[in-house]
Design brief:
The structure holds two protein chains of two kinds. By secondary structure, chain A is of the alpha/beta class. Chain A folds into two domains: 3-217, 3-Layer(aba) Sandwich (Rossmann fold); 222-280, Alpha-Beta Plaits (2-Layer Sandwich). Chain A is built from eleven helices and 14 strands. Chain A has helices at residues 43-50, 72-78, 94-105, 110-119, 133-146, 163-178, 190-193, 214-220, 263-269, 284-294, 305-317; strands spanning 3-14, 18-28, 32-36, 58-63, 66-67, 79-82, 151-155, 182-187, 199-204, 207-213, 222-229, 244-250, 253-259, 274-280. The longest helix of chain A has 16 residues, at 163-178. Chain B is an all-alpha fold. Chain B has one domain (6-261). The chains are: A alpha/beta, B mainly alpha. At the A-B interface, α2, β6 and α3 of A face α1 and α6 of B.
Chain lengths: 318, 266
């Protein structure tokens, strides 16, 4: 079975700070893949190489087993793409735009298109220039899904969507997966895509740090915890617990960061009166922290990950 | 339906600019054709041009005979105003073909559909070729209508020949603008370069008609080929038309190559 996306040593330089370096990314077909990283980390650069909008400095990119540059038209017949900053022709209505894009695609199932419009509650009669960001995004999503592509490449698709549309979007992704199609979603916010994705790749400063399942990612994640006690408890009580880092007691409130299981900490805290327990949602940034902080080799990062671990430090500094 | 493909969509995009440039150029031409007999009775334009001497030549009136309608149109319109409008139209539209889609951010989506960069440029170019021809036909119709209303004699074939040269001139500058925009993604630079070049070339051609030492550089000006053979009197000059067409095709080819190779703006 061919892969949906495969890059080999993909490198793209753009001046000093932007770009990607030696990205080896493999996305298998039939899954929802999350491509995570903070803004400016190289997500869009990678995607734009996959679409042949920009050409790699070195390395190669294949989409659905085809060469991203040479086999462009064949790829374009089988994929859909929604850019992060979606721009539409302002003078066209949603329905005119969808007609145009359907014609460029060589025709789509209009009944299916209409059902998508209905599901996302899009008003197609409005000119796109008068649409809000969220509504523009709906037009983009209808356009992307209406051709039932083998691969959907969605750059930050959830930004600006209201919760209802977000949910419908998730259903659409799940339907695509159930059909054996592939969805490639980039995001800078893990919580928005974590329940949707089978696997995620994490990119930062142009380098792919890891490709993992969501569950193993969360196991490695750092959680910030605040435990409020009913009496004075010595901070030393919690010393030496596995996974607990960065701990301090602040007027009967224990503030700490834990990697992995909370079991040891909770059982120790349960010996005292606990008035309140607050946990702060794990952000992507903290997952990155986990990778940087632990100093481990990055599991499953890349096909060549282990060999390159030493070099990476050098590149990052460069 | 005009949303069938990139060509028809571009025709749709160009419909209002094309309408206005057609109306403007046609309206002026028709107006002059209509008023010519009245004007000629009151003013002896040839005598004025005589008095102006070289200055008249600078204004592009070197070839016209103001006692005929066709000569009058040459002096008043074909020497300066119509080429300025046609070039601005063609260069203005062509400069937006790739750079406009890029700066608006629509090119990313457009190129994720099965259309190559080359076909994108060619289909859009076909639309501006059509638009320029529509404008030229409009000028011809208005001129013929004005001339027939004022019972003036107007050789329609010579007028058509001059309009064909006008279209070719516009397309040559349009292709130059297209090449600049394809190379840089900057619409303002493209239109500015093409229109600036037009002004320089116009001045070179006009000055060369009075300053002998400039004769050597005159062939560098596209205006030399546009009116140099006096199509309003002699009909179309195949070599001159060939030069303009060759320049247009060469810059179109350059635009295709440059656009194909370039990283597109995000």
């Amino acid at each position: 079975m061919t892969s949906a996306v495969e890059t080999t040593k993909l490198t793209k330089f753009y001046g000093k700070s932007r770009g990607v370096r030696d990205v080896d990314l493999l996305v298998e077909t039939g899954q929802v893949f999350g491509f995570l990283g903070p803004n400016g980390s190289g997500k869009s650069t990678t995607i734009r190489v996959l679409l042949d909008l920009i050409r790699p400095t070195s390395g190669s990119a294949r989409v659905l087993g085809l060469d991203a540059h040479r086999d462009r038209l064949e790829i374009d017949r089988r994929i859909s793409y929604v850019p992060g900053e979606l721009s539409l022709y302002p003078e066209l209505t949603g329905s005119q735009l969808l007609t145009y894009l359907a014609n460029l695609k060589g025709g789509v199932d209009s009944a299916y298109r209409d059902s998508l419009i209905e599901r996302l509650e899009l008003d197609p009669s409005k000119r796109t220039k008068s649409l809000s960001r969220g509504n523009k995004q709906k037009v983009g999503l209808v356009a992307a899904f209406m051709s039932r592509p083998e691969l959907l490449i969605l750059d930050e698709p959830t930004a600006g969507l209201d919760p209802f549309v977000q949910l419908e979007f998730e259903h659409l992704c799940e339907e695509a997966r159930a059909d054996g199609r592939t969805v490639f979603i980039s995001s800078h916010q893990l919580p928005e895509v974590e329940h949707l994705c089978d696997r995620v790749g994490i990119i930062r400063e142009g380098r792919l740090l890891a490709v993992e399942t969501i569950s193993s990612l969360k196991e490695r994640a750092l959680r910030r915890l605040e435990v409020e006690f009913g009496s004075d408890v010595s901070v030393e009580t919690f010393g030496g617990l596995p996974g607990v880092i960065d701990m301090r007691m602040d007027d009967r409130v224990l503030k700490c960061t834990v990697q992995g299981s909370l079991d040891g900490l909770i059982k120790t805290a349960a010996r005292f009166e606990v008035r309140n327990l607050r946990t702060v949602e794990t952000s992507l940034e903290e997952i990155f922290m986990a990778y940087y902080g632990s100093g481990d080799a990055i599991p499953g990062a890349a096909k060549t990950g282990a060999d390159d671990a030493g070099k990476e430090a050098g590149h990052a500094a460069a | 339906m005009l949303l069938r493909n990139v060509f028809t969509k571009t025709v749709r995009d160009l419909r209002w600019p094309t309408f206005w440039v057609s109306l403007g150029m046609g309206g002026m031409t028709g107006y002059f054709a209509l008023l010519f007999p009245t004007y000629a009775k009151i003013v002896d334009l040839n005598a004025i041009l005589e008095k102006m001497g070289p200055a008249a030549k600078l204004m592009g009136a070197s070839l016209g005979d103001a006692s005929t309608l066709i000569g009058f149109l040459h002096i008043e319109l074909f020497s300066m105003i119509l080429p300025a409008l046609m070039v601005t139209y063609a260069a203005g539209m062509a400069s937006g073909f790739t750079a406009g889609e890029e700066s608006r951010g629509t090119i990313d989506v457009l190129l994720s559909y099965p259309i190559s960069r080359r076909r994108l440029v060619l289909q859009k170019t076909a639309a501006v070729v059509l638009g320029s021809m529509v404008a030229a036909v409009a000028v011809w119709i208005f001129a013929a209508a004005g001339a027939s209303a004022s019972a003036s004699d107007l050789p329609w074939d010579k007028l058509a020949a001059a309009l064909a040269m006008l279209v070719l001139l516009g397309l040559a500058f349009g292709a130059i603008a297209l090449a600049v925009s394809a190379a840089t993604g900057n619409r303002g630079a493209a239109i500015g370069f093409a229109v600036g070049l037009m002004v320089v070339m116009y001045l070179v051609d006009a000055l060369a008609s009075i300053v002998d030492s400039l004769a050597v550089v005159r062939p560098l000006s596209l205006f030399r080929y546009y009116m140099g053979g006096d199509p309003l009197r002699n009909g179309i000059s195949i070599p001159d038309a060939g030069v303009l067409a060759a320049v247009a095709v060469a810059f179109l080819a350059l635009a295709l190559v440059l656009f194909e190779r370039r990283d597109l703006a995000a």
